[in-house]
Amino acid sequence: MDLVLFPRQELPLRxxxxxxxxxxxxxxxxxxxxxxxxIDQNNLVNGWNAPKLIGTVAKITKCEDxxxxxxxxxxETIGRNKFKIKKIxxxxxHKPENYDPYTVEGHGDISKLxxxxxxxxxxxxxxxxxxxxxxxxxxxxxxxxxxxSLWKNKIIAQALPQVVESHALxxxxxxxxxxxxxxxxxxxxxxxxxxxxDPNDLQPILEADTLDxxxxxxxxxxxxxxxx
Length: 228
Prior knowledge:
Layout: E1 10-15, H1 18-29, E2 33-36, E3 39-45, E4 48-51, E5 54-65, E6 73-89, H2 104-117, E7 126-132, H3 141-159, H4 166-175, H5 185-195, H6 199-207, H7 211-222
Antiparallel strand pairs: 1-6, 2-5, 3-4, 5-6, 6-7
Helix pairs in contact: 3-5, 6-7
């Protein structure tokens, strides 16, 4: 997927590709868990974009058939543990040439190929994974205020020549429930998501395995002189 999910963050998804609908069906018959990984633009698995090796387990909390025809599903998920992929298990279906996931024709082509190989075969990428320990260190209020200040300065600089007042950004923080005197890792994750223009900016933060590395990467993300 072209996104990064952090632990304990909510993620709504619209599902329309046949391979992902099969994934959701399998999840709903099981424990409702699947892995969310940012796509790796430099690697392919049977023609499909490969996943980055660090991702997050997602738990489906709600699933709706939007049009009552099975063509589009809306699911709500929440992030759980981070994981590292040990081995990628390729999908049984190779990506068709000129496949367009946004068209009925594209979906029809996939469905026909799936029927040929057997509908029990999995169209989606699977993997053997190991869970990654959580960072559970506390964050000082001083460090949190420092990160918020960096975020504000970045947003103000990016908006030029339009003027954005600092107090207006306080309302944004309130909207996303990011005003706190007891900051946690979750607050840092959410602030990072607000400060990123591209999911690839968030992957290094997800991959951080210590608090020091995490905070350093968030500071780098919020630094104005970065090429954004």
